[in-house]
Design goal:
The complex is a heterodimer of chains A (227) and B (734). Chain A has helices at residues 14-24, 69-77, 87-95, 151-159, 218-225; strands at 2-7, 28-33, 44-47, 81-85, 101-103, 111-119, 135-142, 146-148, 163-168, 187-191, 197-200. Chain A has 227 residues and is of the alpha/beta class. The chains are: A alpha/beta (227), B alpha+beta (734). Chain A binds chain B through residues 9-10, 12-13, 15-16, 19-20, 23, 49-51, 53-56, 109-113, 139, 141, 143, 203, 205-206, 209, 211-213, and chain B through 145, 148-149, 152-155, 237-240, 242-243, 330-331, 415-424, 426-427, 429, 438, 440, 553.
Chain lengths: 227, 734
């Protein structure tokens, strides 16, 4: 599996993601410059975390106009794999590759902490190594991670099994308290109808080595590698 | 034109003006006066502190760069070095907490990457007034949000620091920002303007009218009205700085430049004088070429602007095109505005006229140095006299109260607003004795801590200064790190007050002695005077940033108990030292007595023992004793553990029970150890002639402390957790 990590101006998890894919997991990985029009033959495009263009407007709202996004959209439309992490998820929403929008966290503060995620759909290229209901411990770090979708859209997401990850407690129970940012239906990770584009607010690249307190994030990348 | 009113507006004395006239051989024009006023301000010139700072040890075999550059540099082996520095942003944070703190972060980051290093960690020492006051809450809320906004966006983790609360900081919050960077030894750059004829490039953001006279503002007391100074505070743009960081590191990586300096305090003035002054050259620039974001700016405004996210670069002629190409890739300006000259003046032209022509040496190096009068405060004797109140009956509730005292309580409310994990090197999360970072691809790691007990310093500045160093090094010892170097931020009141000057002098003596004992060089730092509002000075508050090296991260231990049945051992001796303690302050409302004494040799032996025990893999946890003494330390060991494990501690001693529990005797560390490793630990202690005492065992779900078999404290860990965890969020939810 060849990975490409997109570098927007203001991306700051690009090198972390690159490091995990290349050095920890030993995959062929390249950085893709946002001004280029070249995906360098990658199988999976990763839109990394950070503050693209400073996120002074809506998060991800400017990055979606980056030249390379034309190729990313075509790649997705051909059924190619795309993973958006944190800011990358926000960019996918702005691109319209995933439905919904992000609001500020419900406590109106930036939140950086470990959270527990329940895998609600293991039948995706991003979670195929997980069991249904498996709990992953992976950190979040965001200000705008409060996912919003209107009721009719939510019903469709539920029906199509597009909600892949939800904020839960360590036993996989959903409580108001564990939904730290206030997301609709505790959505932490979402997949496209076709099943090839996923966005997630938590950072799997920060939980891919035991030295950093959790290796649970590897499950996402290793699922992709097995795809 | 230059009358006394103009001089006083520029914070210059008549004598200083006379000296300027003599140095340049004529009357300066207003723009030149502005240049001198900035560079001769306390903030830039260190004119009141220089004479004393020379007492600090600055050399050592690992020192690559000591004081005098943008930051200090220490060799960590394997061809790598660490670059670090601490700076204050106190005055701006009082006036506009969010931007004041944010631009503090921006400034210290530039100090680090201007030397070629990639910033890998930020820490902050913050001091606020009590949270009962809405104004103090607003300041803290703004400062934390400002730090969070800048650090998170640029992608440098804020991995730790300290937060203290005291009435003296109500009108004068302290925001001290520390940054650590990592650099290949062959890729270090300095603030030099070498090679006459070499082009001088302006890079980064455009210049506006913001922050004019920021450094001068930071060099005077504040009265009641600070709101009108708000235009003096700059506005930060972390996105621009992220681009600047990547572009600068790219041109440095490719070896395309000669020298570089950031334009922080004193902006273009500072960089165009300091760089040539260090190289024995001059600089000539044309202000018409400076990228500007406002129309009609005067030379005075352009030279004194403190617009953020700018740098000055000197590059060889042949590389200018390549440098500009790299900046263009990052959508940044890189504009040649002049050149290095053999004539040692700063010469500035504007619309065809010379508006500044002064010797750089006069501006940078010839500011008068003051030995201001120092006098021991008359009130000190009575402050040091302490009559102890009788111990409270219910000591459990005292422990609970201390756990909920904001200075001791959990700071998660603060830390979770900071991205402390980006760059994926943070091995020990915020809240531990020291922040610990791995270095990718190596066995070793780095540890950093910020420390300083201002109450001790107000009661005995010399001892307080020495303790600040000792405690910082002890924090490092608790994670097994050897201290390599220190940067200090010295926050004091108005140095024109003899009592403040005396405190300063004494603190320096204490710092110097301790640094010599621990053999750690001071590689730079910052002095922040004039922390007075409406005539009231803050406590003398030295904040020490110490960087340490851990040989093998696999051996790392944290502060929390890890399992049931481990033996709890106390390193060091406990004596009745309640003066200046958090217990007396928080429980009895007393800020009196002499702070604990410090025997630096014993301290060093305790630290060596802890490091050696960690190196041999003997310890399960280690936590240093500080505010709140043994009881609070033991409580924290329970709270930091992931499992909620309690402990039972027993002491045989006739000391009054509150002294046992809350005395802040120095040179103590509480560790847990597996029973089988105890004999070896005792052997190591004996070799070092250091007292260690088995005091109990981990286990259960309560913190239980007995004295002479009588139970004096019993608290469920859960109850402690509730008090400790919720104290700060509760203060903000009113």
């Amino acid at each position: 599996m060849k990975f490409g990590v997109v570098v927007f101006p203001g991306s700051n998890c690009d090198h972390d993601t690159y490091y995990v894919l290349k050095d920890v997991l030993g995959q062929e990985t390249v950085l893709l410059w946002h001004k280029d029009h070249e995906l360098k033959g990658v199988d999976c495009v990763v839109l990394p975390g950070g503050f693209s263009y400073g996120d002074y407007l809506r998060s991800g709202a400017i990055a979606r106009f980056s030249p390379l996004m034309r190729e990313v959209r075509e790649h997705a439309e051909r059924g190619g794999l795309v993973l958006g992490i944190c800011n990358g998820f926000q960019v996918l929403l702005e691109l319209g590759l995933l439905p919904g929008a992000m609001l500020r966290n419900k406590n109106l503060k930036f939140l950086c902490q470990f959270v527990h995620l329940r895998v609600d759909n293991p039948a995706t290229p991003f979670t195929r190594l997980a069991r249904r209901g498996q709990v992953l411990r992976i950190p979040i770090a965001h200000f705008d991670g409060n996912y919003f979708a209107p009721p009719e859209s939510l019903a469709e997401l539920e029906e199509q099994d597009q909600i892949v990850l939800r904020y839960a407690d360590e036993n996989g129970e959903l409580t108001g308290e564990t939904n730290v940012n206030g997301s609709t239906a505790a959505v932490a990770g979402l997949i496209s109808r076709r099943g090839n584009v996923m966005g997630m607010m938590p950072h799997p690249e920060r939980a891919s080595e035991s030295a950093l307190g959790s290796g649970d994030g590897r499950l996402i990348f290793e699922s992709l590698i097995r795809s | 034109m230059i009358d006394p009113k103009v001089l006083s507006d520029h914070n210059l004395t008549a004598e200083e003006y006379e000296k300027i006239t003599a140095l340049i051989g004529r009357e300066p024009n207003l723009t030149e006066l502005g240049i001198f006023s900035l560079m001769w301000s306390e903030h830039c010139s260190y004119k009141s502190s220089k004479a004393f700072l020379s007492r600090l040890p600055t050399s050592g075999k690992r020192v690559i760069q000591g004081p005098g550059e943008n930051a200090g540099i220490i060799d960590i082996g394997d061809g790598q070095a660490v670059v670090f520095k601490i700076e204050s942003h106190n005055h701006p944070s009082l006036i506009e907490p969010f931007q004041g703190a944010a631009t503090g972060v921006g400034g210290i980051l530039r100090d680090i990457f201007t030397m070629g290093a990639r910033p890998i960690a930020l820490l902050d020492s913050l001091r606020f007034g009590p949270l009962e006051s809405p104004k103090n809450r607003a300041i803290m809320d703004g400062v934390v949000a400002g730090i969070s906004s800048y650090g998170n966006s640029i992608g440098v983790p804020t991995v730790g620091g300290e937060v203290y609360f005291h009435e003296v900081y109500s009108r004068n919050p302290l925001v001290n920002v520390f940054c650590l960077g990592l650099v290949e030894k062959t890729k270090i750059f300095f603030a030099r303007a070498e090679g006459p004829g070499n082009p001088v490039l302006y890079v980064g953001s455009k210049t506006g009218r913001d922050g004019i006279h920021g450094a001068t503002m930071a060099s005077a007391e504040f009265g009641q009205e600070t709101e009108h100074k708000r235009p003096n505070v700059q506005v930060g743009d972390p996105f621009k700085e992220k681009l600047l960081l990547e572009a600068c590191l790219e041109v440095m990586e490719k070896g395309l430049i000669v020298g570089i300096q950031d334009m922080g305090a004193a902006g273009l003035t500072c960089s165009t004088t300091e760089m040539p002054a260090k190289s024995g050259t001059g600089i000539s620039i044309n202000l018409d070429l400076v990228p500007q974001r406002e129309d009609g700016m005067t030379p005075y405004e352009i030279m004194l602007s403190e617009s953020q996210e700018r740098m000055l670069i000197v590059a060889g002629k042949e590389n200018v095109a390549e440098v500009r190409k790299i900046f263009a890739k990052w959508d940044l300006d890189a504009v040649p505005i002049g050149e290095v000259t053999a004539r040692k003046n700063l010469k500035v032209s504007f619309r065809g006229e010379t508006v500044i022509d002064v010797p750089v040496d006069a501006v940078v190096n010839l500011c008068p140095v003051y030995r201001r009068p120092a006098r021991k405060p008359a009130s000190l004797r009575s402050a040091q006299t302490l009559t102890l109140p009788s111990p409270p009956k219910d000591l459990s509730s005292v422990v609970l109260k201390l756990a909920a005292s904001p200075t001791i309580a959990d700071k998660e409310w603060v830390f979770r607003q900071y991205d402390h994990m980006v760059q994926t090197n943070t091995v020990l999360l915020p809240g531990a004795d020291a922040a610990v970072l791995r270095i990718k691809g190596r066995k070793k790691g780095l540890a950093v801590t910020l420390d300083g007990n201002a109450l001790y310093c107000s009661l005995d500045p010399r001892t307080g200064g020495a303790i600040a160093v000792a405690e910082a090094c002890r924090n490092l010892a608790c994670v097994g790190a050897v201290p390599l170097g220190v940067t200090n931020c010295l926050n004091f009141g108005n140095p024109e007050k003899p009592e403040v000057m005396w405190q300063f002098k004494e603190v320096i003596e204490g710092l110097a002695e301790a640094c010599r004992t621990f053999e750690i060089p001071v590689t730079g730092g910052n002095v922040s005077f004039y922390n007075d509002t409406e005539g009231l000075s803050i406590h003398p508050t030295p904040v020490l940033g110490v960087v340490g090296l851990i040989d093998d991260l696999a051996k790392l231990v944290g502060p929390g108990f890890r399992e049931e049945g481990a033996v709890v051992v106390l390193f060091g001796e406990t004596i009745e030292e309640l003066g200046g303690s958090e217990y007396l302050r928080a429980v009895h409302g007393l800020e009196k007595g002499r702070p604990p004494g410090i025997d630096l040799k014993k301290e060093r032996a305790v630290q060596d023992l802890c490091r050696e025990a960690i190196r041999e893999g003997l310890l399960r946890s280690a936590h240093d004793l500080s505010e709140g003494g043994l009881a609070v330390c033991a409580a924290e060991c329970c709270l930091f553990g992931s499992s909620g494990t309690g402990c039972v501690l027993d002491f045989d001693d006739e000391m009054r029970p509150d002294a046992w529990l809350f005395s802040e005797t120095q040179s103590r560390i509480l560790v847990s150890v597996a029973g089988r490793d105890l004999p070896r630990l005792k052997e190591l202690a004996e070799e070092r002639n250091t007292p260690v005492k088995t005091v109990g065992r981990t286990g259960g779900t309560e913190l239980i402390i007995r004295q002479n078999e009588r139970e004096i404290v019993r608290l469920p860990v859960e109850t402690l957790h509730e008090a400790w965890k919720k104290a700060i969020p509760r203060a903000f939810s009113v």
